Q: What sequence folds into this?
C-alpha cells in the first residue's frame, strides 16, 4: 500500500504502511508529468492490486522502470542514467515542478 511521497534534496521516499522506500535522487536527469506514461505497459515483477501498483514494469516509451503508483492517471516519470522510476502523486505537475526546483533541473 502506497500512502504518499516525500521529497528531500537527496531522496524521494515512497510512504507505505509502516515503512518507507528510499529512492536516491543522485544522477536524476529529468522529471516529467506524462498522463500517457502508463498506457500499454507490462508487469515484469510486481503487484497490481486494489491499493497500489508497485514493482518492475516495462513499456516501449519508458523501457524498464520501477513503479510506485496509486492512480495510473497521474504518472510522473523520473529518468536516471540507465533506469527510470514512475510515481503518481496527487498533483503531478506540482510534484514535477517541486522536484525540478529542488534538483535545479
A:
Amino acid at each position: 500500500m502506497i500512502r504518499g511521497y516525500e521529497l528531500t534534496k537527496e531522496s524521494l521516499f515512497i510512504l507505505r504502511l509502516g515503512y518507507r522506500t528510499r529512492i536516491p535522487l543522485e544522477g536524476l536527469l529529468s522529471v516529467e508529468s506524462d498522463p500517457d506514461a502508463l498506457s500499454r505497459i507490462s508487469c515484469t515483477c510486481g503487484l497490481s492490486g486494489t491499493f497500489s501498483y508497485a514493482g518492475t514494469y516495462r513499456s516501449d516509451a519508458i523501457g524498464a522502470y520501477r513503479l510506485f503508483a496509486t492512480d495510473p492517471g497521474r504518472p510522473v516519470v523520473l529518468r536516471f542514467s540507465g533506469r527510470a522510476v514512475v510515481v503518481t502523486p496527487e498533483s503531478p505537475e506540482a510534484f514535477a515542478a517541486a522536484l525540478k526546483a529542488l534538483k535545479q533541473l
Q: What stands out?
A: Residues 98 and 104 are 10 Å apart (CA to CA). The mean pLDDT is 89. The helical segments are 92-103.
